[in-house]
Amino acid sequence: MAIYSNGDANSYYQHSKNFAINFPKLEHSLDVDVCIIGGGFTGVASAIELSERGYSVALLEAHTIGWGASGRNGGQLIRGIGHDLSKFHSQIGEQGVALIEQLGVESLQVVKDRINKYNIDCDFKLGYCDIANHPKHIKYLQQSYEQLQQSGYPHSLSLLDERQVQQQVIGSKTALAGLVDMGSGHLHPLNLCLGEAIAAQQNGAQIFEQSPVKSVRFGDTHQIRTAQGHVNAKTLIYGCNAYLHDLEPKLTGKVLPAGSYIIATEQLAPDLVEQLLPSDYAICDQRVDLDYFRLSADNRMLFGGLCHYSGRDPHSIEAVLRPKMTQVFPQLAQAKIEFQWGGMIGIGANRLPQIGRLQHNVYYAQGYAGHGINVTHMAAKLIAQHIHGESQRMQVFEQVKHMRFLGGKYLRSPLLALGMMYHKMFG
Ligand SMILES: Cc1cc2nc3c(=O)[nH]c(=O)nc-3n(C[C@H](O)[C@H](O)[C@H](O)COP(=O)(O)OP(=O)(O)OC[C@H]3O[C@@H](n4cnc5c(N)ncnc54)[C@H](O)[C@@H]3O)c2cc1C
After folding, report:
1. CA 51, CA 384: separation in Å to the nearest integer?
2. For ligand 1, what atom is nearest to the CA of residue 375?
3. 420: left (phi over 0), alpha (psi -120 to 50) or beta
4. Distance linking the first and last C-alpha atoms of the chain
5. Which of 73, 39, 41, 122 is nearest to 342 (CA)?
6. Ligand 1: which residue has its CA nearest to atom 35?
7. Which run of H or E residues covers position 264?
8. Whose CA is closest to 207, among 67, 60, 32?
9. What is the 272 CA–ligand 1 centroid distance (Å)?
10. Distance, CA 344 to ligand 1 centroid (Å)?
11. pLDDT one digit per residue (tens) for the chain, 427 residues
């Protein structure tokens, strides 16, 4: 049963949210320029981008704003889009690859500008470190460092050896090297998403919660129906990612939903915090089934990992993640776990986010894998720029082919589980 990733999240973020807002349910009919389905970062950031450009916007969210992955994630704002872009040369050429690389850097600025412009209180901090905890990953960090330097990455980077990384970044014997990036960082994702929804509303966007879309009829004017109302819109955007289910099978079939999970400790004593993560950076290791962790603003360890491809949540997230956490930080053996939750990430076969159109006036963005805070915001900007005729940069993503997964909804996740097992054993 997927109670953690599909139910309401009993998360640290829900416990510490800054905004007590409720948006109404859609119970009438409404005519707008653009209707957005989904109230995560993809949807909310699109609502801001479009309302800033003067469009009338209605956003429909099935539950509450940030209910999906956007309000549950690790909060790590990390540079880059996709993995190993060189494999797309044959489809989009060198220029296309260079553009996506550039967008991967620009995406950080989009989020930072948003936080600054609307003064969103979301505990944003700069500083992120890739950790090598296996000798073969040290070389990978060196290569990443060199590539970033050569490409003119505009933020401070430093490559740290075992002694430096353990002294400056992480009090763990498991860390053998680190690559620190001061352009990336971490934040409270639910507060960012809620703050953005409020900003979109202030710009004139109409936002509806508890309003799951039941059906869509495409046309020059689309008709988007909920149980008690409907929206007529010239343009439609799908921003439902791994939670789309059967609403639009053409999109669902290209994304495999996978559960990812996080535990949050009790608040830790300042001297312990200083030992564990003295620079307060967000951290990821380099394994396929990676651990990702960081401190919250009130000094809890938020430790994430464990990707489940079976569609079933573990019975106890703590039972699975605590041993992983104490392997990295034996100092936390006695720490109480106060929150545990999960969410669904959407994974495409080639792991490049899927951004494009189903037809000329129907847009979508999905398939960010575990790396979506920056990319959702970049996707929203590209889509808004495309709708407004400001830039065609979105089209680089449309040129990439995305495989449809065989096996329908019941077999897709088991197939992914098999694929990931293969990747772990032979990748
Ligand atoms: C546990 C976890 C940790 C992660 N950690 C990180 C991280 O540290 N850094 C990072 O960059 N990324 C991370 N990610 C990935 C990132 O959170 C996602 O890529 C991103 O939030 C996707 O945003 P979204 O708006 O596209 O989808 P979501 O946030 O999932 O939102 C989709 C929304 O659509 C709504 N919806 C679905 N169907 C309908 C319908 N019929 N009608 C109306 N609404 C509908 C859902 O209710 C949901 O609210 C993590 C993800 C998870 C689950």
Report:
1. 9
2. 11
3. alpha
4. 30
5. 73
6. 38
7. strand 256-265
8. 60
9. 32
10. 7
11. 567 777 787 899 999 999 988 999 999 999 999 999 999 999 999 999 999 999 999 999 999 999 999 999 999 999 999 988 999 999 999 999 999 999 999 999 999 999 999 999 999 999 999 999 999 999 999 999 999 999 999 999 999 999 999 999 999 999 999 999 999 999 999 999 999 999 999 999 999 999 999 999 999 999 999 999 999 999 999 999 999 999 999 999 999 999 999 999 999 999 999 999 999 999 999 988 899 999 999 999 999 987 777 778 888 999 999 999 999 999 999 999 999 999 999 999 899 999 999 999 999 999 998 899 999 999 999 999 999 999 999 999 999 999 888 765 555 555 555 555 444 443 3
Alpha-helix runs per DSSP H in 151-292? 162-168, 189-202, 249-252, 270-276
Tokens of 129: 């470190």
- Residue linked to tokens 């998403």: 193
Tell me the CA–centroid distance for residue 207 and ligand 1, in Å.
17
Q: Over the range 252-285, which residues count as b (16 or more CB within 10 Å of their CB) and which as e?
A: bbbbbbbbbbbbbbeebeeebbeebbeebbbbbb
Distance (angstroms) between ligand 1 centre and the Cα of 265 equals 23
How far is ligand 1, taken at its centre, from the CA of residue 242, in Å?
7
Q: Whose CA is nearest to atom 19 of ligand 1?
A: 372
Q: How far is the CA of 41 from the centre of ligand 1 (A)?
A: 7
- Contact status, residue 180 vs residue 128, Cβ threshold 8 Å: yes
Residue 408 φ then ψ, to 5° = 65, -175
Predicted TM-score (pTM) of the model is 0.95
Using the atom order of ligand 1, give the atom closest to the CA of residue 76: 8
CA 390–ligand 1 middle distance (angstroms)? 27
Ligand 1 interacting residues, C-beta cut-off 6 A: 37-43, 60-63, 67-70, 72-76, 78, 212-213, 239-244, 247, 260, 262, 292, 304, 342-345, 368, 370-373, 376
Nearby residues of 357 by Cβ (< 8 Å), 6 or more positions away: 363, 364, 398
Q: Which atom of ligand 1 is nearest to the CA of 259?
A: 53
